[in-house]
Amino acid sequence: MKKLALLALALVPILLFAQPATEPKAGTYAIGISKMVSHPALDAIEQGIMDYLDTTDIKATFDLQNCNAEIGTAIAIAQKFKSDKKDLVIGIATPPAQALAQVITDKPVVFGAITDPLAAGLVANYNRSEPTNIAGISDLNPVELQLETFFSITKLKRLGMIYTSNEANGVAMMELARDICKAKGIEFVAAAVSNSSEVKMAAQSIIGRIDGMYIAIDNTVVSAIAGVSDVCAKAGIPLFNTDTTSSENIDFLMSWGFNYYTVGVETGKVVERILKGENPKDVGAIFFDDPTQFELWFNLDVAKKLGITIDERLISSAAVLFKDGKRVERP
After folding, report:
1. What's the CA gap between 164 and 221, in Å, rounded?
2. Between 156 and 6, where is the model more confident?
3. Using CA atoms, how far apart are residues 331 and 320, in angstroms rounded to an integer?
4. Could you tell me which residues come within 8 angstroms of residue 215 by beta carbon, excluding any fewer than 6 positions away?
5. Burial level of 26, CB count in 10 A (0-12/13-18/19+)?
6. Strand 29-35 and strand 158-164: pairing?
7. Across 138-221, where does the E strand assignment appear?
8. 127 pLDDT band (50/70/90 cuts)?
9. How many CA atoms lie within 13 A of 318 on its CB side?
10. Coil, strand or helix at 276
11. What is the mean pLDDT of the chain?
């Protein structure tokens, strides 16, 4: 039922209303934040939002809620925010943002870390021509470049991926990776999960049929990344985790993605623009296109164990290296 409920929510078109610009006020804004689940990346977004707004002249109180990957809870949180008459609400990850957008139509809804806001039904188009009360930040990664780099390092022929079948971000990333693999002549082996308790078992189900594992921007899977790392390490399979925030204590080979605290800061900037009077329609969906906003990490200890040599040019471009059990920050 949970899977069907989320699918139905994702497929119902978001109703678009002519949302006037928020009138700035002298008092304190009541802001509600609903996040998908607690894990390092989403926690960093939440913190980045609050830290950034703390540097502005905006006074705000925050109601922090965690739906624990339950769509029913996400809807209940949205309904609570509506009844509490929040001045602005923020959805971190797709299901909470979808729930907020469905329930709250008379106040601004800001999304953070939505891979494809259009596919998620959060924006009608990217041209900002339709009236809407919704705006925010996408965390779409340069997937083709990332995978090409992973392929060049590992020389793999079969790529494995675990994705959440009831999360729009997870499905979108799976389809993109599948199409890239097809174009590159790489066999693609996917395993679907519906919750974090299934992730390690999904990794075990495909580990014997792959040469490398790819974990994309998928909150349910990332929340259980330690289990994937354990399965890959025992099988001698290189792991590419796009969430650098959760890569600190796992046996990854390559990690390349956002610093999610920065995503939170950028989401906070969207909130500031709207609370200072800008119309959400004029803000729209914001995509990162600056390479410096992405970080490339390598674990040279894992590379050595797997007998993989990483080109010195790639190593020199990395922001973080792990070597001899230590983390090394690159200038």
Report:
1. 7
2. 156
3. 9
4. 161, 162, 221, 222, 225, 228, 239, 240, 241, 242, 243
5. exposed
6. unpaired
7. 158-164, 187-193, 212-215
8. low
9. 24
10. coil
11. 89
Q: To 10 degrees, the CA torsion angle through 184, 188, 192, 195?
A: -60
Amino acid at 112: G
**Among positive and negative, which fits the CA dihedral 173, 176, 179, 184?**
negative
Cβ distance 219 to 42 under 8 Å?
yes
CA angle (139 as vertex; 135, 145 as ends), nearest 5: 140
Structure tokens at 320: 């973080």
The one-letter amino acid code at 27 reads G
Q: How far is it, in rounded angstroms, from Cα 232 to Cα 193?
A: 17
3-25 in b/e form (b: 16+ CB < 10 A) is eebbeebbeeebebeebebbeee
Residue with tokens 């989403």: 42
From 55, 62, 60, select the one nearest 28 (Cα to Cα).
Answer: 60
Structure tokens at 59: 């006074």
Helices first, then strands: H and E counts in the chain: 13, 14
Task: Return the structure tokens found at 240.
Answer: 């590419």
285-286/134-137 β-pairing: parallel
Is the Cβ–Cβ distance between 109 and 92 less than 8 Å? no
Closest CA to 297 of 325, 257, 326: 257
Q: For the residues 130-137, what does the mean pLDDT come to?
A: 90
Please state the length of the chain: 331
Considering Cα of 293, then 176, then 130, then 133, what sign does the dihedral take?
negative
**What's the whole-model pTM score?**
0.76
Q: What is the pLDDT of residue 126?
A: 56
Residue among 180, 184, 176 nearest 155 (CA)? 184
